[in-house]
Design goal:
By secondary structure, this protein is an alpha/beta fold. It has a domain of 208 residues: Isoleucyl-tRNA Synthetase, Domain 1 (Orthogonal Bundle), CATH 1.10.730. It is built from 21 helices and 18 strands. Helix 1 links the parallel strand 1 and strand 2. Helix 13 runs antiparallel to helix 19. It starts with 12 loop residues before the first strand and ends in a 28-residue tail after the last helix. The protein binds ligand ME8. Ligand ME8 binds next to strand 1, helix 1, helix 7 and strand 14.
């Protein structure tokens, strides 16, 4: 099968998305996890000079949402209009930098979905038949008899374990079965299409097992988008939802500017999803796109679940901590840091407040926060808060005499930036963060080893000796103790500048704060990260500001 596209292949855009979340509930740690991860990657790519577009949004149609509305005595539209601001507020609280926020009840989406379905119909991929089978409402998924599980006489969903309901309806079907070979070819030609590798294997063997055609419309309720060629049917919520990734960037629009936007941004570089919705994204979605003659995305990355005490977090299990509670205790950057550093992205990860406290105190309070406090305080104390200046010749002599382990880490070939950027490229947040933390720990050690407080004492003693001998310090040919002190403080401040840059995708607020304290400007906005992670760019003479501790130490008592 050939896929015809009119897309512009010369585009340089980096388009990434999160799932669009159901509005049957409010944001929780799970949905926040995917969104924060996508945000960190979007921020990294912007800082790295890519023309980034980051989309998130809401899945507002379907039976589940209609039921939540009914249970709350509202119309579906009133219900979704009430919940949408809660998501927007949550993402604002978590400092999410999405460029767009799509809601599937928006006109731009409805129009695009109808155009898409019309195209599938015209291309001969849709037909009408009777659907008889099971439906899992919480997952909005169809299951055949042999896919469900029978427990104590009750059929339950093989994925979430909740009861399924029997459905017998005349529906429109999508010829998914025609896409087995094209999908297998896609996985072959784009080996990174499904990441990580374990998920790829899962998807490939699922497709090899054969594909059944998919029911794509419902008639027993009407909270959805009508099929343009048979309006008594509303489009199956998953088909409706998946199309958001293209309607948000202009698919289906009559506006030439939006059409050009679509040509430039699509195919997406990355769809971030949780492992629960991988088949929709790695099987159904690319098949739908192929059927419509549109290129599939480049990559789908499916991460694992956050688990509390070994169980998937969910409201029905009653083990949910809320993002706002944790942000209130730890602050937004510590929240973002914990989830991205402590859970290996891709795998399931156990989270707990005790562990979060441990990571907070070790990495943020004692390491990063402490380094900033002590170095900024010493700059204040020994240099009146001004970044010290040294002659290049003196720097060369001091580097020879004292060494500069921090510059070495930053400047090494296959150095810090390369390791960090490679980790980001592999969506390995903990790898990227641990390379920055390594520099941070080394910098704390450097301060200990160099003992600026002793150098300061030596500088005072040396000065009075020189005065007594009638010598002028400025004429000294060999580096003096005050030169050594300036060298150590400058290096420590410079390492802090580099760390502020590299921590910024994950901890944007504190990095901006540190940037300001170093006298580098009110906003940290750069698009040439590789160039900035270079030794010696902190201007001498900058006025620094000590400020309050960035991450005050916390104890268990503080959070109970
Ligand atoms: O599935 N751990 O929406 P949804 C990690 N509307 N991530 C979790 C999680 C957990 N415990 N719980 C949820 C839908 N997530 C559809 C998507 S896209 C076209 C339509 C995250 O509100 C994870 O990303 O149920 C998961 O895939 C997503 O929330 C499911 O969100």
């Amino acid at each position: 099968m050939t896929v015809t596209t009119q897309q512009d292949t010369s585009k340089s855009s980096y388009y990434l998305t999160t799932p669009i979340y159901y509005v049957n509930g409010v944001p929780h740690l799970g949905t926040a996890y995917t969104t924060v991860a996508a945000d960190a990657l979007a921020r990294f790519n912007r800082m790295d000079g890519k023309d980034t577009w980051f989309l998130t949004g809401l899945d507002e149609h379907g039976q589940k949402v209609a039921q939540s509305a009914e249970a709350n005595g509202m119309s579906p539209q009133e219900w979704v209009d009430g919940i949408a601001p809660r998501f927007k507020e949550a993402w604002k609280m978590l400092n999410i930098s999405n460029d767009d926020f799509i809601r599937t009840t928006e006109e731009r989406h409805i129009k695009g979905v109808q155009q898409f379905c019309e195209t599938l119909y015209q291309n001969g991929y849709l037909y009408k038949d009777t659907y008889e089978g099971w439906y899992c409402l919480p997952d909005e998924t169809f299951f055949a008899d042999d896919q469900t599980v029978l427990i104590e006489g009750q059929r339950v969903c093989p994925d979430c374990g909740r009861p399924v309901e029997f459905v017998c309806e005349e529906n429109w079907f999508f010829k998914l079965s025609a896409f087995q070979e094209p999908l297998l070819e896609l996985y072959e030609q784009q080996p990174d299409f499904v990441c990580p590798q374990t998920r790829r294997n899962e998807v490939v063997s699922f497709v090899k097992g054969g594909l059944k055609d998919l029911s794509i419309s419902r008639t027993t309720f009407n909270w959805g988008i009508p099929l343009p060629f048979d309006p008594s049917h509303v489009i199956y919520v998953w088909v409706d939802a998946l199309i958001n990734y293209i309607t948000a960037i202009g698919y289906g629009s009559d506006d030439p500017i939006m059409q050009a936007e679509f040509a430039r941004r699509w195919p997406a570089e990355l769809h971030f999803v949780g492992k629960d919705i991988i088949r929709f994204h790695c099987v159904i979605w690319p098949a739908m796109l192929m059927a419509a003659g549109i290129e599939p995305p480049q990559k789908v990355f499916a991460h694992g679940f956050l688990l509390t005490k070994g169980e998937k977090m969910s409201k029905s299990r009653g083990n949910v901590m809320t993002p706002s509670e944790l942000v209130r205790i730890f602050g937004v950057d510590a929240y973002r840091y914990y989830f991205l550093s402590d859970v290996q992205f891709g795998a399931d990860g156990s989270i707990s407040i005790e562990r979060m406290l441990q990571v907070y105190n070790a990495d943020l309070a004692n390491s990063w926060g402490n380094l900033c406090s002590r170095v900024l305080n010493m700059t204040q104390k020994y240099f009146d808060g001004v970044v010290p200046d040294l002659w290049p010749k003196t720097i060369a002599k001091l580097t020879e005499e004292m060494g500069n382990p921090l510059a070495q880490i930053v400047q090494a070939e296959e150095g810090l930036y390369q390791r960090y950027a490679k980790a980001f490229g592999q969506v390995d947040y903990s790898g990227a963060l641990s390379s920055v933390l390594e520099l941070c720990n080394r910098a704390n050690l450097y301060v200990e080893e160099s003992a600026p407080w002793n150098l300061a004492k030596a500088a005072v003693a040396e000065k009075s000796e020189m005065q007594a001998a009638g010598l002028d310090e400025a004429n000294a040919t060999a580096p003096t103790a005050s030169d050594r002190l300036a060298f150590v403080i400058y290096n420590s401040l410079e390492a802090i500048r580099v760390m502020a840059l590299l921590f910024a995708p994950v901890m944007p607020a504190t990095s901006a704060e540190v940037w300001q304290r170093l006298g580098l400007g009110d906003v940290l906005e750069i698009d040439d990260l590789a160039k900035q992670v270079c030794w010696g760019l902190l201007p001498a003479g900058n006025k620094v500001d000590t400020g309050e501790p960035l991450f005050p130490r916390l104890q268990l008592d503080d959070i109970e």
